[in-house]
Design goal:
The chain is mostly beta strands. 7% of the residues lie in helices and 53% in strands. It is built from one helix and ten strands, in the order αββββββββββ. Strands 1, 2, 4, 5, 7 and 8 form a six-stranded antiparallel β-sheet that branches. Strands 6-3-9-10 form a four-stranded antiparallel β-sheet, covered by helices on one side. The longest helix has 10 residues. 23% of the residues are buried. The structure holds copper (II) ion.
Length: 138
């Protein structure tokens, strides 16, 4: 619990500025047995009055985190890396199965339902946003 409290304090620290990005209803899918990757979803909501351009994604629980988008190409589902994501002021961007998702690779431990994952996002102007996201089967 101390660990979690420390993260929350860091997220509210003076260097961070106002936390204008909310990750609503966020969840991470439990790691399928034997799999080395999973995905995170939720609704990114920019509550501020300027656009947020997300350019970097990371997590202490995974060696590699990136933003992907699943697209249908000639009836075949393909994933593409998305280098940056702009969330306009007041707007929402949905991360959901079959669309945008956070690709979580190289897990550092078993990821089971009921645990939490810390996800970090950084914008092009250097702001960092930190979220505690539950691992849930949905
Ligand atoms: Cu993906």
């Amino acid at each position: 619990m101390l660990f979690v409290a420390g993260i929350l304090l860091a997220a509210c620290g003076p260097k961070q500025g106002p936390a204008n990005l909310v990750f609503d209803q966020a969840w991470v899918r439990p790691l399928p047995p034997g799999m080395k990757m999973t995905a995170g979803f939720g609704t990114l909501h920019n509550t501020g009055d300027g656009a947020i351009v997300l350019v970097s994604f990371s997590s202490p629980s995974f060696g590699d985190v990136s933003l992907h988008r699943t697209e249908q190409v000639d009836g075949v589902s393909k994933m593409r890396a998305v280098p940056e994501l702009t969330v306009a002021a007041g707007e929402e961007v949905l991360l959901e199965p079959g669309g945008f998702h956070l690709m979580l690779m190289m897990p550092r431990s078993e990821m089971k339902s009921g645990q939490h994952v810390t996800l970090e996002m950084a914008s092009d102007d250097g702001r960092r946003f930190v979220f505690e996201v539950p691992i849930e089967r949905r």
